[in-house]
Amino acid sequence: MNFRILTNSFRLIALLAVISLSSCKKESGSNSNDASAGNLSDSSTAADNMYYDVLNNAFVGFSDNSTVWNASSLHAEKTTTFSLDGEHTTNLGCAIYTISDSVPGEYPKTLTLDFGTGCTSADGILRKGKLIYVFTAPIVVPGATASVTFNQYVVNGFGLQGAYSITNNSSDQNGISFTTQVTNGIITYPNATNYHYSHNKTYVMTAGSGTPYDITDDVYSITGNSSFSTAGGASLVFTSKTPLVKAVSCHNVSSGVVDFVYNNSVSGSIDFGNGDCDNLATVTVGSWNKTVILR
């Protein structure tokens, strides 16, 4: 694949469908370890999705600002702050961008997304606070990385902390691929409960690269692992059993299985189905089995 194609902003926005916010909701089970593991797995899924949103914003923010990285208005030791016109604000709503460009035309560059006291995007996601990205190169270039700092950042009521990084691993041989890492993550739920979180995820395009101007046929494969623990010591470790499959044309993950281990002793899994574009998945822990609704 010719990676000049990657500069097309529509390709960047295509990734949004892969990592759009969603969470699992299920009915209460018994008080057994199996049910406890199932319930905690539901909470950890929400954590996964809130951190996924950080990758969303990296691509949208970079795409929105792609025409001003080297603007003549940016000068050494200066910072430019601006909000976008109506054409672009549909991506991140009322976010205000600040670009710190110490050497125009060169990297690294710092992009701050400021959502203020509350900013709702077109797809209904409410964000507060700031996300600060430091790009070593344009994120669409293979080998580029971005590090992220959270400044009182809250998405849909969930506060995020920790170290977050993005790496572009794309190549002509391997196609379009990105990895994300979260270390020392802390997610604060709307009820003020804190959980510890980390992950290492890889996103690979498996279909659609031959039609760069048509995102509707794009499909992505997601693999990796994550960990999630409570203040009381209960823990979950997730590992991909089969890659999750996410088509741009479908709102939810349509297939793939993630295995998890609860408190180093109880094993379970989340099965996202056989490829049908629906909003259902199945959580299984021992004899405990429930259908969950993705939203």
**In which range does the helix fraction lie?**
10-25%
Instruction: Tell me the number of strands.
Output: 16
Which descriptor suits the 3D outline? Answer: globular
The end-to-end span amounts to 34 Å
Radius of gyration of CA atoms, rounded to a whole number: 19 Å
Let me know the average pLDDT: 78
SSE string, helices as H and strands as E? HEHEHEEEEEEEEEEEEEE
Low-pLDDT parts are: 1-31, 72-80, 85-90
Overall tally of domains: 1
Sheet/helix structural class: alpha+beta
Outline the biggest β-sheet: 16 strands, antiparallel
Strand fraction: 35-45%
Number of helices: 3
Question: Any overview of this molecule?
Answer:
By secondary structure, the protein is an alpha+beta fold. It has one domain. It is 17% helix and 45% strand. The protein has a 16-stranded antiparallel beta sheet that branches. Strand 12 and strand 13 form a beta hairpin.
Summarize the structure.
With 295 residues, the protein is of the alpha+beta class.
Task: Name some characteristics of this structure.
17% helix, single chain, 16-stranded antiparallel β-sheet, alpha+beta, 295 residues, disordered N terminus
